[in-house]
Amino acid sequence: MTVPCLLSAWSAHEAELLRYLRHHVRPPSEAEDVLHDLFLKALRQGERFCAVNNPRAWLFEVARNVVVDRARGARSSEPLPEDLAAPVFELAAVDGLSACLPRVLRELADEDREAIELCDLGGMTQGCFAALKGLSLPGAKSRIQRARQRLRAQLLRSCQVQLDETGAVCCFVPRPPPA
Question: pTM for this structure?
Fold first, then answer.
């Protein structure tokens, strides 16, 4: 069922819509197909199209949306080249120390290991650690700081960590796991 108000608006704006689409649709030869789709969208509106205050504005807005949707679809469906190399990510030397950490933690005193595991690895706040251990906050902070210093010293010694001139880890020698 055709709606007379749609046919009237379409005949008044069809040529202008086609010019717009030829300018914005790639390749321009597909503009007539898009124009046909636009007409079908308007036709599906039925009597609601007659209630539109400005049919020209409605038709151009829908045309613009179709152009944008086609551009999005074309961009996302382009195949990747076969010879595209995967990016190579090089880990910083300090990131490799995680392999040494479990063994070095086992070598620490129980009190130091617990502080490191709860606060640094487990995310517990120093305030909660203080409450858990029955310490004052300054006492807990001191215990955690000393545990960190001993962990650092043990990592340097056990994993033969070397630091660069800025104090950052530049390299280390991982120890084999215990037998």
Answer: 0.46
